[in-house]
């Protein structure tokens, strides 16, 4: 006999957890209890932090059975606050994380539209753009994200060509198609981890990491650097953020983990 559903657990949480990244719980589920790193700071506290609402023009049905739908909490580049981004696929999720981690990008809007255009048959149609990227040099790029298997018929390509002819300069200066072949899954994994850690700024541990790097010369593993920080898991987070924010450079290839070798940028 099936057990009764616990509807209290299934309800949407109205108050986010103190740790917006959710990484400690995920780590314990994956690896179980582990010996903690030395910790002089204790758990991070972020009282009263509530993500900004989703800003797209198209509703995201997270209960869709036909495709992956995601409401991800990442940092809003314009305000520096956590914000909910609505995405229609894992590919969009990966591309968004990489885009937000690009220092040349100033702001990102998702699910923009509907944009009117005239299709091949001369009929009026509408299209939602997956992402509109505002670069710091002023250039705006509209991005359509689609897996290559969805392009075989050619219908979507023809639709984009028609949209390109009618898209106004007030929306974007360029229309770009992105597929899974445009994205490194390793780089996407690293960018997603950075975006989640960026939700939890930590000035105290950042200062401790900067002091330690003054006395560390050459390459060092993230594991050893985390021990030197004596900040527990908060040290690892700050190291990952340092790799994207100009404090450290990654020496060894692959996914960022405790065995990754890094070097201070001086």
Notes on the protein architecture:
This protein is α+β, with helices and mostly antiparallel strands. Among the domains are: 70-185, Trna Endonuclease, Chain: A, domain 1 (3-Layer(aba) Sandwich), CATH 3.40.1350; 202-264, Orthogonal Bundle (Arc Repressor Mutant, subunit A), CATH 1.10.10. The protein has helices at 7-10, 23-31, 90-100, 155-166, 185-198, 203-215, 222-229, 233-244, and strands at 70-75, 82-87, 105-118, 124-135, 140-145, 174-178, 220-221, 248-250, 261-264. The strands form 3 sheets. A 4-stranded mixed sheet has the order 3-4-5-6. It has a 3-stranded antiparallel sheet with strand order 7-9-8. The termini are far apart. Mean pLDDT is 86; it is low at 1-13.
Short description:
By secondary structure, the protein is of the alpha+beta class. It is 31% helix and 22% strand.
Any idea what the shape is? elongated
Distance between the termini: 64 Å
Strand content: 15-25%
Low-confidence spans: pLDDT under 50, at least 5 residues? Answer: 1-13
Tally the beta strands. 9
Helix percentage? 25-40%
> How do the helices and strands follow one another from N- to C-terminus?
HHEEHEEEHEHHEHHEE
The biggest beta sheet, please? 4 strands, mixed
- The CATH class of one domain is Alpha Beta
User: How big is the Rg?
Assistant: 21 Å
> Structural class of the helix and strand makeup?
alpha+beta
The DSSP helix count reads 8
